[in-house]
Amino acid sequence: MTIHLADTGDNGVLKPCTHEYQVNCGNCRLNSICLPLALESDDIKQLDDIIQRSKPLQKNQHLYREGDDFQSVFAVRSGTLKAYKTTDDGREQVTGFYFPGEILGMDGISNNAHASSAKALETAAICEIPFSSLEKLSSLMPNLQRHFFQLMSREITEDQQLITLLSKNSADERVGALMLSISTRNARRKLSSTQFRLPMSRVDIGNYLGLTVETVSRVFSRMQKMDILQVDNKEIEILDLEGLRTMANLGR
Amino acid sequence: MTIHLADTGDNGVLKPCTHEYQVNCGNCRLNSICLPLALESDDIKQLDDIIQRSKPLQKNQHLYREGDDFQSVFAVRSGTLKAYKTTDDGREQVTGFYFPGEILGMDGISNNAHASSAKALETAAICEIPFSSLEKLSSLMPNLQRHFFQLMSREITEDQQLITLLSKNSADERVGALMLSISTRNARRKLSSTQFRLPMSRVDIGNYLGLTVETVSRVFSRMQKMDILQVDNKEIEILDLEGLRTMANLGR
DNA sequence: CGTGCGCTTGATAATGGTCAAGACGCGTGG
DNA sequence: CCACGCGTCTTGACCATTATCAAGCGCACG
């Protein structure tokens, strides 16, 4: 199945949006949850110098693919991406969703090749951080080294959360946990923690949570019936946060 | 660091086992799969200087507990450990098994507190690597920094494998995959890849793989009946590696 | 105005969980 | 050395959750 959006081979000329291209780490709204966190302003400038901002990714475009040479890690500036691996029998496993301010691609470091693919779920702006430069800079800036270690460690603990979720929790709990996770991450970005639009499909949700589409759909219906969520296709409103927490049953 | 072996209160004079205490990274049989990998010999010496080797852990002793202050990461020198988290409703989730040469504790970096507990499944010797020293050394030795980034990245990709396993694979496939993983890790340490003793209980296996003990037991029985494995309690012999691979169905 | 994809809902089936009982192995103490 | 007891493992019968299969709805897009 090929999906091709406007593949306007004809226009050729892109008018870069100057507004867009003035973005830097120093003025980035997300710098308190992204890499620059905990850097002094002249350090931020140095980091900023190695970061590349290219033209936005369109929906369904890949940022990288499993097996690609690993050169960089990436920060999401806007939009959402999903990371996934393809199992040899052709199935897909979604390993994560990445929202603005979050870093992806770190799983490529170990083998110098990306261990998963990443594609945009909607138009997305990305900061590319060449890893070799990041390494050099990290040697010079202990805070940056520390922060990057922490980011990788966080990725590990988050994966462990997901492992626990998949291993121990029911369908209701899994979906509930994902809704809470999105809610929390929205709050970090000063967005509504109770009302949002899901950027991913039901299929992606199910895939991520180890469930079928049908089950995901049924869980949403159930939660709607229980007045915990208001679900209108991708528009979600959390009506009863406490109830949702109880349902998700993870406490952490 | 104080060394106390047989703490025979009366004699006062301890004859430390010189054999044991001559262990260092330079002569360690495991250094090709552990931290020193990719270091020059004078670099290894520097690393060696920060590593602490304390008295062995007895079976069921904890190396650290969830929530403990994070100070160090640890390398397994001998024995096996399991890492696990306790969910708030009191259940346990095993997040990994660690064999000689493997590093654990990296999930504690992100919050300066261990995100999981680690306990010995049998008597185990451990190298403790104080993280602050490791950070300093990493700044000075690019190879070490790189290698540690890679180790963390590997932990991420391994967790993602487990996520996929839990999310997509049947009980047979999960147990098969674990057996193959242990087999491979044994081979790395020049041990038999077809015959080994499982250091963990069926409960631990089930917990790790998101299955009940009963199911794990049934899978072993089934594989025995199919002449894929020879199972005698914890003694495992892989009779048909190809068959096991087919059964595990992961290809990677 | 149709076509297709994504979502929902229902009926049925299968995998693995739960409950229960018994076997086996191991360490302790008589 | 044997008996006991406990913990771990195995096996069986039954049940529940979720997958599978199937059909229909609705919105977006051509």
The Rg value of chain A, from CA coordinates, equals: 19 Å
Reported for the largest beta sheet of chain A, the result is:
4 strands, antiparallel
How many β strands of chain A by DSSP? Answer: 11
Intertermini distance of chain A: 40 Å
**Helix/sheet category of chain A:** alpha+beta
Fourth-tier CATH superfamily name of the largest domain in chain A: Jelly Rolls
Kindly report the greatest chain-chain contact and the residue count on each side. Answer: A-B, 49 and 48 residues
CATH classification, class level of the largest domain in chain A: Mainly Beta
Total individual domains of chain A = 2
Q: Percent of residues of chain A in helical segments?
A: 25-40%
CATH domain fold name of the largest domain in chain A: Jelly Rolls
The ordered H/E elements of chain A are HHEEEEEEEEHHHEHHEEH
Rough outline of chain A = globular
Summarize the structure.
Two copies of one chain form a homodimer. Chain A has helices spanning 18-21, 41-50, 131-140, 142-168, 171-188, 202-209, 213-225, 241-248, and strands at residues 52-53, 62-64, 72-78, 81-86, 92-98, 103-104, 117-120, 125-130, 195-197, 229-232, 235-238.
